[in-house]
C-alpha cells in the first residue's frame, strides 16, 4: 500500500460526492456489476454494502473486477475525458495550427464544456495550451541561433509584438533580454505529461519545471536577477543528461536521477528536498512524515511551503508527498499530473523484485 486507506464510510462518502482528492489513490469495486471505478465516476452510485475499496488498479484486477467503461480507471483522469483525448491528439498531430473557438464549435463541441474540462485538469484552456505548443516552435528556433522574426514565423504568430508578448508571459522577459554568453541557459524538454523548461549552468541543473506552472515566470525572474552572467537560451551538459534520464523515466526503465543539481533555498528547504529524494519511486509520504524525517516534527506547515518552493520537478519528487488521509493535495504542476506520476511510479514499484 502507498498509504493506509481511510475507513469504508469515509471512502463511500467520497464516492457519493465524487471527491477528486482520492482520484488515482483509491478505487471502488462493485460486487453487483463486477467492475471497478474511480471515486469520481459519473455512473449511478451503488449501495454501500456492495462496495469494497482498494488502493491500486492491480489490487482491483487481482480481485477479479473489470475496469469501468465510463470513468476508464486505467487511464490518466484527464485522458479519460473524450473531449480532452480528442483535442490533445489533434494538437499533437498539427502543433503549428492556430486554433480558434470557431474550430472547436465546428467540431461539435460546446465551448464552455471544453473550457471547464481543460481548466479542471490543466489549469488552462485548450486555446492557451495550443498557443503554448506553437510557442515551443519559436523557442527552439531561438535556441538554434535564429532571429526573433524567424522564431515568430515558426511559431505562427501574426506579429513580432504578439510573439514577444507571449514569450514574455512564459519566460518573464522578452527574447531580446536573453544573453548569448549567459551563465545559465534555458532549454525546452518535451515529455509525455507536457513540456518542461530546464535551466542549467555548465555543471549543474538549476531549474526543471512544467511550462504551465504558474510560478515559473517568477522563478525565472529571480534566477535572472541573482545570477551573475544572466540567462540565455541553449544547452549545457546537465540539460542533456536530464533529458536522457527523463526519457528513461517515462519509458518505465529507470527512476534514478543522477543529474547534478544546484538548489536555491534555505538550509531548512534543502533538508526537506534531500528528504524528498529518499522516497522510493512507487511510495509516498505525508508532510508530517517528512517533518519527522528531518527531525522537525512540529514544522509540518514549513515542510509544505518548502515542498511547494521546489524548482526541480520529478528529480526532487515533491509529487510523492500526499495528505495524511491519502488525498493528493496541491501540486504546482496540476493534480492530474501528480496522479499520473504516482501511477507511473507504481509500475516501478511492481517491477521491483
TrEMBL record:
It catalyses: a 4-O-methyl-thymidine in DNA + L-cysteinyl-[protein] = a thymidine in DNA + S-methyl-L-cysteinyl-[protein]; a 6-O-methyl-2'-deoxyguanosine in DNA + L-cysteinyl-[protein] = S-methyl-L-cysteinyl-[protein] + a 2'-deoxyguanosine in DNA. The keyword Transferase applies. Residues 106-181 form the HTH araC/xylS-type domain. Gene3D superfamilies: DNA Methylphosphotriester Repair Domain (3.40.10.10), Homeodomain-like (1.10.10.60), Methylated DNA-protein cysteine methyltransferase domain (3.30.160.70), Winged helix-like DNA-binding domain superfamily/Winged helix DNA-binding domain (1.10.10.10). Keywords: Activator, DNA damage, DNA repair, Methyltransferase, Transferase. It comes from the Bacteria. This is Bifunctional transcriptional activator/DNA repair enzyme AdaA. It comes from Thioclava arctica.
Amino acid at each position: 500500500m502507498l498509504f493506509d486507506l481511510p475507513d469504508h464510510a469515509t471512502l463511500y462518502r467520497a464516492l457519493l460526492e465524487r471527491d477528486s482528492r482520492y482520484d488515482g489513490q483509491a478505487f471502488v469495486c462493485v460486487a453487483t456489476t463486477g467492475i471497478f471505478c474511480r471515486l469520481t465516476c459519473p455512473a449511478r452510485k451503488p449501495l454501500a454494502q456492495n462496495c469494497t475499496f482498494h488502493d491500486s488498479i492491480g489490487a482491483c484486477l487481482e480481485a477479479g473486477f473489470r475496469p469501468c467503461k465510463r470513468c476508464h480507471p486505467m487511464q490518466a483522469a484527464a485522458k479519460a475525458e473524450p473531449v480532452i483525448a480528442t483535442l490533445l491528439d489533434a494538437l499533437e498531430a498539427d502543433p503549428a495550427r492556430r486554433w480558434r473557438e470557431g474550430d472547436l464549435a465546428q467540431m461539435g463541441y460546446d465551448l464552455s464544456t471544453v473550457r471547464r474540462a481543460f481548466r479542471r485538469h490543466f489549469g488552462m484552456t485548450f486555446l492557451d495550451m495550443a498557443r503554448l505548443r506553437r510557442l515551443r516552435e519559436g523557442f527552439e528556433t531561438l535556441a538554434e541561433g535564429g532571429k526573433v522574426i524567424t522564431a515568430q514565423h515558426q511559431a505562427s504568430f501574426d506579429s513580432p509584438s504578439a510573439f514577444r508578448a507571449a514569450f514574455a508571459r512564459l519566460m518573464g522577459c522578452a527574447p531580446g533580454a536573453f544573453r548569448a554568453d549567459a551563465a545559465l541557459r534555458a532549454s525546452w524538454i518535451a515529455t509525455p505529461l507536457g513540456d518542461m523548461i530546464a535551466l542549467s549552468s555548465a555543471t549543474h541543473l538549476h531549474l526543471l519545471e512544467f511550462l504551465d506552472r504558474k510560478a515559473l515566470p517568477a522563478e525565472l525572474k529571480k534566477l535572472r536577477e541573482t545570477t551573475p552572467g544572466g540567462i540565455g537560451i541553449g544547452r549545457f551538459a546537465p540539460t542533456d543528461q536530464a533529458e536522457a534520464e527523463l526519457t528513461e523515466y517515462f519509458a518505465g526503465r529507470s527512476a534514478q536521477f543522477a543529474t547534478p543539481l544546484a538548489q536555491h533555498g534555505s538550509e531548512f528547504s534543502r533538508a526537506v528536498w534531500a528528504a524528498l529524494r529518499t522516497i522510493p519511486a512507487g511510495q509516498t509520504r505525508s508532510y508530517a512524515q517528512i517533518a519527522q524525517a528531518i527531525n522537525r516534527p512540529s514544522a509540518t506547515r514549513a515542510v509544505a511551503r518548502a515542498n511547494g518552493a521546489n524548482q526541480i520537478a520529478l528529480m526532487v519528487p515533491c509529487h510523492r508527498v500526499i495528505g495524511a488521509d491519502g488525498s493528493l493535495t496541491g501540486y504546482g504542476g496540476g493534480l492530474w499530473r501528480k496522479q499520473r506520476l504516482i501511477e507511473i511510479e507504481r509500475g516501478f514499484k511492481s517491477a521491483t523484485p
